[in-house]
């Protein structure tokens, strides 16, 4: 592998630091949670180890102190007080800087460590006899090694030496089981030992000595101060007692191992590789589409059968790929807890964050692109939406303001909402600001939605907010542009005195979708099948009849229609048997009149360049089996256009 | 002073091992995959072998098994590198003839401690 | 090639548009294809009114003649599409440029490059990066940045489609 190990370490370090941060924030709320304490300790331990391994000595040395502090918490010697948690949290940025190899001033490091030490000292559990004199225990240890232990490199002598390191020992070799010389295989181990050890260490320290062989050996550790158990004569150890002891020891290990693997195995894959795989699948779909055409045109029935089989496989592969890239939104949400923590501190307001729907999944790239906009929206809610505790008290609201982040799937979209229970958006101020910045004229008539949407116009806010996160201005207009870049939409609702909600509607990234291929004039277009409700014929009289309002009657409903031939100015004569494809978004419908419906087509969406991105009618393009290009119609846009046009005609007529 | 063979396809891991142990006075030789490791260790001459399991050409488990069938390979302590939570692999490696293990990531002191633990006094 | 030398000459690809000779920085040229009508994009500005399939990617097809107010010609046997890779708003984008005829990659000495005169020119001076003379011929180097930025000079670039 030619990947840079240091780069891999950096990635790992970032992940670990994030885990540590999440764990610490959890502890702030639940200081007694053992699992979280263990998790934070393990992450610190791994960070220290990896750091040392890859030469990040300063990081390892620094992390070592945090790890030790948490080791003491883990052992119950010290409580996870808010001060301790804050001290380690404060050290996060320093550790991050060290992990990235950036300059991290030694003085700063020292100050952080001093703060940590103070917190640890203060948190020492009261009445904890720190070093009230070592308590000594005497153990009787009996062990024997498997016959192949020597062949497999295990040396009994170092084991005995290690036991001697723990305290005073009396070692007796047990020779009962040594076979007679004529059958003895010299490389086999048939010796057993009995050791009486007096030590201040506990049982686990003794077990640690045998850590490499503990699963294969017979090991019996008995505290001699404890009530006497059945003491067998030296020599033939009772297999029953010993195997019981070994079994109970084995269980925790097994349990731990299972817990560690609980969530199922995962594999880390560089995102780039996933993208490449996605591209290949896309190409496969195109090639399969070609194959289908050829098979249909040809006379070879076997070919057709194979083509169908490949079509099925390609569909399954496509579906699997979609899922592979999906990632739960909770991953993103988790980062915001630290943000809220800091915002509360910076603004002096009490802020509660609630999260909902963290399991909702989105495509990985979409999630990454949502990060900055969401940060901005949350900051906005905290800065402008929420009132100060005094203001809230005066308004009869609970002192802590709430910012609620929620995600849910709705049809082919994921809707992410940021809701605050603050003061709501002052319409008059928005209006004034918009007029001030020349976005609207004083006499312009706008409904509430249009007024609220002005917030997202570039130029609405002349003061660029410099956030500590990005260091450059991230305005609401950038948020809107990013969401639209994901082919999504932003909605705002707000009630004065009660709060506001910003809803982001993001279409599930379907790089491959099922579409309806149609012909208008000489060109072909694709209509996303998910939006298609039905197709009806447009009889010639209906066509000729409709001057003015273009509507057709569909089961007692009037549905406006758009002649794509006219919309696209094809300049061709209409087909005698035109079809109307009824498409819908939400409750609204429009009929699209086409010359011919060519059939289903599995489509790889390719986005249009910047030159064409603002042509609202099309959301992308695709390559057909014969190499030709078909533009993909943007259904919401067309539906809206159709509704607007119809409304105008109705108003006029 | 004892001589140690480090077998791992990652040059940076071999380097990390070398640096940690050379400091204690051990001499460290390297091999980049199981086959090379087997070739070098098969003739005896090493007091300890530290090996990764996941390697190209010949993986660690196969190398350990084959090494144990050779007279020169019997009895020499073999440590393998593993991640903490891998209980299955530990059992497999032990069955193949490994002596002990080192959990990744390890810091230099841990490495030295474990090496001293298994090396005959 | 030393830095000083690099500044002295410009490697360019020369091509014809409506009888006039133009030149592009050869470094941005990726490929030269046979001309094709491409697929029309209704509602797009005249400057980039079509897209083509280039090796499985869909790229815009631009016509510099629109930017320079030249007549558009029907494609003939010499017509070519020059595919360039250009930075559009920070993204490296592949763009096809229609041409009547492609000549060759040649060098222009920095000394031969002149700025375009403010007035008296046949076409917009803000769309011109420079002019060069060679053997009596005038070679025009278009300012692609400016042309792309203004979508070929179309004001209110996108014509909203109105259902009839």
Roughly what fraction of the amino acids of chain B lie in strands? 15-25%
Distance between the termini of chain B: 11 Å
Strand fraction of chain A equals: 15-25%
By secondary-structure content and strand pairing, the structural class of chain B works out as alpha/beta
Offer a quick outline of the entry.
By secondary structure, chain A is an alpha+beta fold. Chain A contains 20 helices and 21 strands.
Architecture overview:
- With 653 residues, chain A is an alpha+beta fold.
- In chain A, strand 15 and strand 16 form a beta hairpin.
- In chain A, helix 3 (57-74) packs parallel to helix 5 and helix 4 (82-99) runs antiparallel to helix 5 (106-123).
- The N and C termini of chain A lie far apart (72 Å).
- Chain B contains 5 helices and 5 strands; from the N terminus they run E-H-E-H-E-H-E-H-E-H.
- Chain B has helices at 11-22, 34-41, 60-69, 87-96, 108-118, and strands at 3-7, 27-31, 48-51, 78-83, 100-104.
- Chain B has a 5-stranded parallel β-sheet with strand order 2-1-3-4-5, sandwiched between helices.
- In chain B, helix 3 links the parallel strand 3 and strand 4.
- In chain B, helix 2 (34-41) packs parallel to helix 3 (60-69).
- The longest helix of chain B is centred in the N-terminal third of the chain and has 12 residues, at 11-22.
- Chain C has a single domain (3-157), classed as OB fold (Dihydrolipoamide Acetyltransferase, E2P), CATH 2.40.50.
- With 164 residues, chain C is mainly beta.
- At the A-B interface, helix 2, helix 6 and helix 8 of A face helix 1, helix 4, strand 5 and helix 5 of B.
Keywords:
heterotrimer; A: 653 residues; alpha+beta; 5-stranded mixed sheet; 21 strands; C: 164 residues; mainly beta; OB fold (Dihydrolipoamide Acetyltransferase, E2P); 46% strand; disordered N terminus
Question: What is the strand and helix layout of this fold?
Answer:
The complex is a heterotrimer of chains A (653), B (121) and C (164).
Chain A: H1 5-29, H2 34-53, H3 57-74, H4 82-99, H5 106-123, E1 137-144, H6 156-166, E2 167-174, E3 192-199, H7 203-209, E4 218-223, H8 239-261, H9 271-297, H10 301-324, E5 326-328, H11 330-347, E6 351-356, E7 361-363, H12 364-385, H13 389-394, E8 401-410, E9 413-420, H14 427-436, H15 448-453, H16 476-485, E10 489-495, E11 499-507, E12 512-520, E13 523-528, E14 532-537, H17 540-545, E15 551-554, E16 557-563, H18 564-567, E17 579-585, E18 588-594, E19 596-604, H19 610-613, E20 618-623, E21 629-633, H20 635-652
Parallel strand pairs in A: 6-8, 13-21, 16-18
Antiparallel strand pairs in A: 1-3, 1-4, 2-3, 5-7, 8-9, 9-11, 10-11, 12-13, 12-19, 14-17, 15-16, 17-18, 20-21
Helix pairs in contact in A: 1-2, 1-4, 1-11, 2-3, 3-4, 3-5, 4-5, 9-10, 11-12, 12-16
Chain B: E1 3-7, H1 11-22, E2 27-31, H2 34-41, E3 48-51, H3 60-69, E4 78-83, H4 87-96, E5 100-104, H5 108-118
Parallel strand pairs in B: 1-2, 1-3, 3-4, 4-5
Chain C: H1 3-8, E1 9-17, E2 20-25, E3 29-34, E4 39-40, E5 50-54, E6 57-62, H2 64-67, E7 80-88, E8 91-99, E9 101-109, E10 113-114, E11 128-134, E12 137-142, H3 144-149
Parallel strand pairs in C: 2-12, 6-8
Antiparallel strand pairs in C: 1-2, 1-9, 3-7, 4-5, 5-6, 7-8, 10-11, 11-12
């Amino acid at each position: 592998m030619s990947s840079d190990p240091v780069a891999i370490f950096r990635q790992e370090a970032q992940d670990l630091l994030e885990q540590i941060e999440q764990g610490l924030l959890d502890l702030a709320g639940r200081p007694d949670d053992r699992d979280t304490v263990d998790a934070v300790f393990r992450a610190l331990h791994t960070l220290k180890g990896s750091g040392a391994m890859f030469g990040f000595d300063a990081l390892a040395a620094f992390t070592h102190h945090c790890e030790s502090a948490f080791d003491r918490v883990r052992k119950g010697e010290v409580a996870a007080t808010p001060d301790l948690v804050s001290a380690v949290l404060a050290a996060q940025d320093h550790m991050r800087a060290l992990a990235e190899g950036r300059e991290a001033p030694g003085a700063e490091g020292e100050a952080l460590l001093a703060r940590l030490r103070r917190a640890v000292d203060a948190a020492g559990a009261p009445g904890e006899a720190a070093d009230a004199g070592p308590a000594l225990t005497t153990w009787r240890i009996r062990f024997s090694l498997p016959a192949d232990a020597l062949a497999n490199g295990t040396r009994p002598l170092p084991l005995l030496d290690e036991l001697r390191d723990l305290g005073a020992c009396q070692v007796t070799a047990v020779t009962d089981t040594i076979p007679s010389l004529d059958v003895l295989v010299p490389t086999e181990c048939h010796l057993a030992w009995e050791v009486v050890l007096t030590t201040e260490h506990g049982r686990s320290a003794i077990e640690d000595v045998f850590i490499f062989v503990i699963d294969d050996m017979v090991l019996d550790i008995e505290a001699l101060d404890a009530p006497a158990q059945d003491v067998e004569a030296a020599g033939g150890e009772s297999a029953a007692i010993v195997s019981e002891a070994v079994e109970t020891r084995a269980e925790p290990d097994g349990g731990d191992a299972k817990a560690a693997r609980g969530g199922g195995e995962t594999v880390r894959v560089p995102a780039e590789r996933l993208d490449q795989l996605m591209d290949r699948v896309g190409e496969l779909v195109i090639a399969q589409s070609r194959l289908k055409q050829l098979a249909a045109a040809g006379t070879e029935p076997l070919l057709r059968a194979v083509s169908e089989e490949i079509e099925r496989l390609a569909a399954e592969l496509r579906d699997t790929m979609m899922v592979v890239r999906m990632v739960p939104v909770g991953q993103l949400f988790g980062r915001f807890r630290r943000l809220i923590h800091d915002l509360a501190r910076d603004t002096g307001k009490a802020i509660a964050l609630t999260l909902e729907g963290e399991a909702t999944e989105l495509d990985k790239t979409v999630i990454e692109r949502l990060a900055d906009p969401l940060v901005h929206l949350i900051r906005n809610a905290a800065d402008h939406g929420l009132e100060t505790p005094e203001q809230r008290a005066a308004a009869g609201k609970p002192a802590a303001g709430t910012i609620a982040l929620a995600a849910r799937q709705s049809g082919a979209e994921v809707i992410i909402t940021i809701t605050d229970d603050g003061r709501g958006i002052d319409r008059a101020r928005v209006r004034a600001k918009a007029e001030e910045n020349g976005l609207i004229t004083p006499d312009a008539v706008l409904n509430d939605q249009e007024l609220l949407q002005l917030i997202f116009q570039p130029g609405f806010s002349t003061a660029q907010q410099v956030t500590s996160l990005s260091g450059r201005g991230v305005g609401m207009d950038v948020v809107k542009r990013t969401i639209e870049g994901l082919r999504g939409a932003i909605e705002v609702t707000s009630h004065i005195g009660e709060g506001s909600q910003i809803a982001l509607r993001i279409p599930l990234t379907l790089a491959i979708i099922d579409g309806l291929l149609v012909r208008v004039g000489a060109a072909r277009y694709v209509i996303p099948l998910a939006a298609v409700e039905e197709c009806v014929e447009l009889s010639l009289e209906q066509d000729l009849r409709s001057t003015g309002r273009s509507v057709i009657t569909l089961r007692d409903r009037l549905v406006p229609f758009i002649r794509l031939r006219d919309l696209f100015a094809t300049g061709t004569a209409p087909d005698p048997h035109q079809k109307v494809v009824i498409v819908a978004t939400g409750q609204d419908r429009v009929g699209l009149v086409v010359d011919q419906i060519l059939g289903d087509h599995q489509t790889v969406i390719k986005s249009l360049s910047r030159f064409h991105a603002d042509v609202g009618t099309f959301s992308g393009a695709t390559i057909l089996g014969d190499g030709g290009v078909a533009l993909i119609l943007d259904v919401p846009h067309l539906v809206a256009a159709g509704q607007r046009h119809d409304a105008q005609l109705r108003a006029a007529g | 002073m004892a001589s140690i063979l480090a077998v791992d396809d990652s040059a940076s891991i071999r380097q990390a091992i070398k640096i940690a142990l050379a400091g204690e006075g051990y001499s460290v030789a390297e091999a980049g995959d199981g086959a090379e490791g087997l070739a070098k260790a098969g003739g005896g001459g090493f007091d300890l072998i530290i090996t990764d399991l996941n390697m190209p050409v010949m993986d660690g488990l196969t190398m350990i098994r084959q090494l144990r069938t050779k007279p020169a390979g019997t009895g020499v302590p073999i440590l393998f590198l593993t991640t903490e939570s891998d209980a299955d692999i530990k059992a497999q490696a032990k069955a193949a003839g490994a002596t002990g293990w080192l959990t990744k990531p390890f810091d230099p002191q841990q490495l030295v401690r474990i090496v001293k633990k298994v090396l005959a006094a | 090639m030393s830095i000083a030398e690099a500044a002295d000459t410009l490697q360019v690809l020369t091509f014809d548009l409506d009888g006039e000779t133009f030149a592009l920085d050869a470094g941005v040229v990726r490929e030269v294809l046979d001309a094709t009508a491409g697929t029309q994009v209704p509602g797009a500005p005249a400057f980039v009114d079509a897209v083509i399939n280039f090796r499985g990617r869909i790229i815009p097809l631009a016509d510099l003649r629109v930017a320079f107010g030249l007549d558009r010609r029907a494609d003939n046997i010499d017509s070519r599409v020059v595919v360039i890779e250009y930075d559009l708003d920070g993204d490296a984008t592949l763009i096809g440029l229609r041409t009547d005829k492609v000549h060759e990659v040649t060098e222009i000495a920095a000394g031969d490059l002149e700025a375009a005169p403010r007035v008296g020119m046949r076409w917009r001076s803000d769309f011109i990066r420079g002019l060069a003379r060679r053997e009596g011929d005038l070679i025009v180097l278009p300012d692609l940045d400016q042309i792309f930025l203004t979508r070929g000079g179309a004001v209110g670039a996108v014509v909203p489609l109105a259902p009839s």
